[in-house]
């Protein structure tokens, strides 16, 4: 089988089954595992898969830069944001992550809602300036421009001195095996620090993130309260997550 044919075979397998196991592909095609791994490296370099131990998973489309992410699945993000905003109670306290879905949450909060919002995103803070009854706390640190948030040691230390009822957390990948993932190690650490300071953590996951993976793990399934998604209730990955005991909140 030519390299181009192997490439198409791998992409088709990824689309149909949601993962590639290198040793199985090698056995099926009668080639070496090294050949399969080389093909996966090439696909990963093009952003077409996320390499993991033993093979590959679908790559998240949500790892592009902040401006580009605004155009990805805006309606799905709106639905997720609406469901997430409904969890914020009057007088409650919220840790709101950065990113485009979190920004949609900020815009979905009622203008007259009395609450406290803690965020490490200047964009989120700016979006809530017009909410007169929302108390805002902005956590400082090095600005990670890709997601328009602060992260690093100073931001993590600042996060350790706050607490809230609820944390709404964004990720770029949601996969039954890879877990909750994102594209940057320091951003993943910041997300863990934020989640640790809230009584409940819900993950914001519009449907394009379901079944995909990014390089850095954020949290294990047992450390979140639930997942908010607009994916179809009977989506195969959603059903796998339910089987793992993950609470799914349907959006839309």
Radius of gyration: 19 Å
Strand order of the largest sheet: 6-5-4-9-12-14-15
Question: For the terminal residues, how far apart are their CA atoms?
Answer: 45 Å
Work out the helix count.
Answer: 10
One letter per element, helices H and strands E, the order comes to HEHHEEHHEHEHEEEHEEEHEEEHE
Q: What is the helix fraction of residues, given as a range?
A: 25-40%
Strand content: 15-25%
Furnish the topology, listing elements before pairings.
Layout: H1 3-17, E1 20-21, H2 22-29, H3 33-45, E2 50-52, E3 55-57, H4 66-69, H5 74-85, E4 93-96, H6 100-108, E5 115-119, H7 122-127, E6 134-138, E7 142-144, E8 149-151, H8 153-159, E9 164-170, E10 173-175, E11 179-182, H9 185-195, E12 198-204, E13 216-219, E14 226-229, H10 236-243, E15 248-250
Parallel strand pairs: 4-5, 4-9, 5-6, 9-12, 12-14, 14-15
Antiparallel strand pairs: 1-3, 2-3, 7-8, 10-11, 11-13
Model description:
Helix content is 37%, strand content 24%. The chain has ten helices and 15 strands. The chain has helices at 3-17, 22-29, 33-45, 66-69, 74-85, 100-108, 122-127, 153-159, 185-195, 236-243; strands at residues 20-21, 50-52, 55-57, 93-96, 115-119, 134-138, 142-144, 149-151, 164-170, 173-175, 179-182, 198-204, 216-219, 226-229, 248-250. A seven-stranded parallel beta sheet has the order 6-5-4-9-12-14-15, with helices on both faces. A three-stranded antiparallel beta sheet has the order 1-3-2. Strand 10 (173-175) and strand 11 form a beta hairpin. The longest helix has 15 residues, at 3-17. The protein is elongated. It starts with a helix and ends with a strand.
């Amino acid at each position: 089988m030519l390299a181009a044919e192997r490439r198409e075979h791998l992409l088709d397998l990824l689309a149909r089954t949601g993962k590639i196991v290198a040793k199985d592909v090698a056995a099926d095609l009668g080639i070496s595992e090294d050949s399969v791994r080389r093909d996966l490296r090439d696909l990963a370099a093009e952003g077409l898969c996320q390499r993991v131990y033993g093979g590959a998973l679908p790559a998240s489309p949500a790892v592009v830069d902040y401006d580009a992410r605004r155009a990805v699945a805006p309606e799905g993000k709106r639905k997720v944001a609406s469901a997430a905003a409904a969890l914020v109670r009057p007088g409650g306290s919220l840790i709101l992550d950065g990113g485009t879905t979190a920004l949609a949450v900020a815009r979905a909060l009622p203008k007259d809602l009395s609450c406290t919002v803690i965020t490490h995103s200047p964009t989120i803070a700016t979006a809530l300036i017009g909410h007169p009854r929302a108390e805002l706390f902005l956590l400082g640190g090095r600005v990670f421009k890709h997601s328009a948030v602060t992260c690093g040691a100073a931001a993590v230390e600042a996060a350790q001195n706050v607490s809230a009822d609820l944390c709404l957390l964004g990720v770029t990948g949601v996969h039954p095996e890879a877990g909750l993932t994102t594209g940057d190690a320091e951003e993943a650490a910041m997300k863990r620090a934020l989640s640790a300071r809230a009584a409940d953590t819900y993950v914001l996951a519009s449907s394009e993130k379901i079944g995909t993976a990014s390089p850095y793990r954020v949290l294990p399934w047992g450390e979140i309260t639930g997942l908010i998604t607009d994916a179809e209730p009977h989506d195969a990955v959603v059903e796998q997550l339910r089987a793992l005991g993950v609470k799914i909140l349907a959006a839309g």
